[in-house]
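Long-time lurker, first post. I've been practising inverse folding by hand and with some scripts of my own, and I keep getting stuck on stretches where the structure tokens seem ambiguous. Below is the full token string for one chain I'm working on. Before anyone asks, I'm not after the true native sequence, just a reasonable design that respects the backbone. If someone could post their per-position residues I'd love to compare against what I wrote down in my notebook.
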């Protein structure tokens, strides 16, 4: 293919692939909206359970509906015994995101007609997955540390129960509330890589579980949800570094990326990052503010370098500021991306159901993009197949 006929590939940036009524981003103004409601209003005034209801059903619940929904989620928190039994045979060094991704098809195995296209069944399964995701993460953490797996506590809310099952102690309500806000902020984000992966998979009429497992796989990568763990690794590495500015400069000069900075859509700031930065500063102030100080130095140095390169749109994103928040809550680094998943599963399921059942105007049933072929080409008759004995 000649250079003249070659198109520039953009990783689908700016390409609209479907209609969606679930969330909206204005990347220039730094606005994120779920089903019409601003993320800041939800973080300040809602709860994760209410946000899940909003994402799945499209409207804010009445008090009665929210109470029934919360009860339903609580009743579904346990996972089948064979899932926990299986985990006990897995290598303790397994990455939690791999474990989580492996568990989703295991949950599917308990379902008759796992690939059903019944909307109500898919909604019920979505609610069950939201309920069970924290149980899976906590159970794996306990098993890998040779600790007993703890039963969910129906008296605790979603975040508080997760921290209980993980840490084996009842957390204070303020920490549970902070984690609940983190879950609200991560619950959906339009056609990000993992949501697109989930929608693409179910566009083949694969099951909801297959879509969620695909979402988990995409989320695990360090350019997506995996970035929060990488940010914490960076902060820990720089904990005793006297020359943070020098470290950041050297890294960027070497062509490497600063994790937790930059975003494909937000170009003036990530509203989730603003919220989490404040939370991190508040939590950090109680313990000396070390992480906020290190983060500030990284941010200031990187922003000055980016400005010099004409790349002022690279700014801290959600992961830059969520990582120290989770750390201050006592969450191990490799569980930070699974916590993202505990929240984002709500958005994935809403998108999967929309993909499966909504009348997506003008969109063919199946996603099928195309690639620009840049490999060997000898014309439509193909290259001459040489016998093995003649090959060099
Ligand atoms: N550190 C250093 N340079 C960065 C950067 C970062 N965190 N993020 C983007 N850039 C640079 C790229 O090197 C590239 O430079 P070039 O044009 O000179 O090659 C340019 O900015 C564009 O990056 P690109 O990956 O092509 O597009 P993007 O702006 O859509 O990237 C991300 C979005 C998220 C992939 C990118 O910002 C990134 O890798 N960030 C770090 C990982 C991260 O935090 N991910 C979580 C996102 S919520």
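-- Answer (accepted) --
I ran through it position by position. Result:
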């Amino acid at each position: 293919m000649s250079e003249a006929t070659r198109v520039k590939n953009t990783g689908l940036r700016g390409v609209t692939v479907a209609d969606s009524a679930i969330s909206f981003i204005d990347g220039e103004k730094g606005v994120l909206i779920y089903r019409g409601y601003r993320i800041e209003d939800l973080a300040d005034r809602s709860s994760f359970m209410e946000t899940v209801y909003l994402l799945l059903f499209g409207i804010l619940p009445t008090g009665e509906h929210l109470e029934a929904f919360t009860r339903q989620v609580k009743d579904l928190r346990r996972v089948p015994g064979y899932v926990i039994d299986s985990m006990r045979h897995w290598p303790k060094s397994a990455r939690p995101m791999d474990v989580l991704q492996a568990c989703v098809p295991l949950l599917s195995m308990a379902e008759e007609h796992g690939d059903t296209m019944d909307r109500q069944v898919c909604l019920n399964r979505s609610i069950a997955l939201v309920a069970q995701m924290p149980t899976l993460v906590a159970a794996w953490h306990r098993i890998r540390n040779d600790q007993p797996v703890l039963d969910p506590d129906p008296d605790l809310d979603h975040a508080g129960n997760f921290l209980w099952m993980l840490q084996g102690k009842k957390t204070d309500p303020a920490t549970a509330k902070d984690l609940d806000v983190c879950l609200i902020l991560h619950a959906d984000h339009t056609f990000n890589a993992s949501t697109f992966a989930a929608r693409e998979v179910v566009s083949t009429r694969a099951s909801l579980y297959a879509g969620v497992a695909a979402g988990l796989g995409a989320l695990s990568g360090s350019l997506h949800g995996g970035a929060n763990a990488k940010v914490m690794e960076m902060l820990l590495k720089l904990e005793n570094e006297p020359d943070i500015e020098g470290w950041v400069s050297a890294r960027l000069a070497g062509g490497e990326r600063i994790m937790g900075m930059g975003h494909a859509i937000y170009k003036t700031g990530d509203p989730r990052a603003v919220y989490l930065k404040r939370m991190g500063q508040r939590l950090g102030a109680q313990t000396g503010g070390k992480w906020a100080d290190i983060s500030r130095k990284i941010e200031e140095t990187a922003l000055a370098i980016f400005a010099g390169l004409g790349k002022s749109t690279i700014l801290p994103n959600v992961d830059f500021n969520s990582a120290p928040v989770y750390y201050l809550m006592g969450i191990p680094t490799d569980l930070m991306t699974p916590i993202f998943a505990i929240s984002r599963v709500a958005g994935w399921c809403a998108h999967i159901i929309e993909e499966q059942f909504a009348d997506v105007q003008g969109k063919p049933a199946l996603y099928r993009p195309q690639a620009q072929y840049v490999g060997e080409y000898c014309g439509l008759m193909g290259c001459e197949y040489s016998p093995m004995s003649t090959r060099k």
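A couple of notes from the structure itself: The mean pLDDT is 95. The pocket of coenzyme A is lined by residues 223-224, 227, 252, 257-264, 311, 314, 317-319 (CB under 6 Å). Happy to go over any region you disagree with.
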